[in-house]
Amino acid sequence: MSRRPPQRETNPFPFSDSNKRYHTFDYYLRKRYGEKCAVIPLDAGFSCPNIDGTRGVGGCIYCSGRGSGDFAGSPTEPLALQYARQRAAIASKWNCRRFLPYLQAHTNTHAPIERLQRVFAELSALPDAAALHIATRADAIDRERAELLARLAEESDLTVELGLQSIHDETARRINRCHTYAEFLEAVELLRAASERIRICVHLINGLPGEGREEMLASARAVGALGVDEVKFHLLYVLRKTPLAELYLHGGYTPMTEAEYVETVALQLELLPPETVIGRLTGDAPRAELLAPLWSLRKMPIQNAIDRHLFESGSMQGKALT
User: Fold this and answer.
1) Is residue 319 part of a domain?
2) Each residue of 149-186: pLDDT tens digit?
3) Assessment of whether the complete model's pTM goes beyond 0.85
4) How many domains does the chain have?
5) Given Cys at both, which of 125, 177, 230, 309 links 172, Cβ 3.0 to 4.6 Å?
6) What span, in angstroms and rounded, lies between the C-alpha atoms of 269 and 320?
7) What radius of gyration do the chain's Cα atoms show?
8) Which one, of 274, 258, 266, lies nearest residue 315 by Cα?
9) Residue 67: how many CB atoms within 10 A of its CB?
10) 321 in any annotated domain
11) DSSP letter at 226?
12) Strands 230-235, 277-280: parallel, antiparallel or unpaired by DSSP?
């Protein structure tokens, strides 16, 4: 009886050494640094333009009080201490020698330049850091901040992560993002003009209020056409004590089903160039704060379902572009 080759041996996707038919972040890290690296989320205690009144108040309707930094360290602790605590915890579980410090919570270029310089200096001094990641928003990038990031990129590998979520300005108004798609495009150009060494990662959220599959695919298509370095996909979670929770509890919002999410992400992957790194296929919600959808707690089965969908449909990242 002939041996049936495993999927990894027959996988036609060029940026993979496994059964994954998309360009995983793990694959990118191993090719770039020769080994696995662990992400360490940090909280530098910044705010956001749509929280502190610079552009708006209240924040995005889905955002927790931690500003998407629910798994980051405490903002009352120095970055070095946050980093050391999490590094020790990771080392007790996995044989990992290099790390990715990630300023994750809130908007990490939304502060006076002098404060940003101090924080970025602390970040770049962290030991055994393979690369630095800084999460921010398009309306917190101007020429001065882009040039500051460019100087940081000369010292360390740097990824700037922009929370776009959707290209549609009507959606932006619904979620209280408080900046336009045109401002996002301007921020991308400022970063590119400042330094070719800055990697750009864009976050997209599926299941935003008022959006159907076509709107979600349009966002992926547009971001893919920009040629950014990395994309992270997220499912919209309903967290307690958020405006979205009130909308959901009063019947004004229905979350995506698991099947809808799997099919949508698979189609979005087809629209992204194969070279684009996929930072994640879905995110993590703090279990105690999650109202819906509860199926999202099964993160690994969701990823496996996307893998299976791509395999069974004969699809892969970038297929729609060929």
Assistant:
1) no
2) 999 999 999 999 999 999 999 999 999 999 999 999 99
3) yes
4) 1
5) 177
6) 9
7) 19
8) 266
9) 22
10) no
11) H
12) parallel
Cβ atoms of 282 and 261 closer than 8 Å: yes
138 CB neighbour count, 10 Å cutoff: 24
CB 168 within 8 A of CB 211: yes
Q: What CATH number did the domain enclosing 221 receive?
A: 3.20.20.70
Q: 200 and 232 in contact (C-beta within 8 Å)? A: no
CA atoms within 13 A on the CB side of 45: 11
Q: State the residue range of the domain holding 202.
A: 7-314
Tell me if 1 is assigned to some domain: no
Packing angle, helices 258-270 and 299-312, rounded to 10: 50
Residue with tokens 């993002």: 177
> Which neighbouring-strand residues pair with 135?
161
The predicted-structure confidence for 139-149, as pLDDT tens digits, reads as follows 999 999 999 99
Q: Is 145 helix (H, G, I), strand (E, B) or coil?
A: helix
* CA 166, chain centre distance (Å): 13
Residue 320 lies in a domain: no
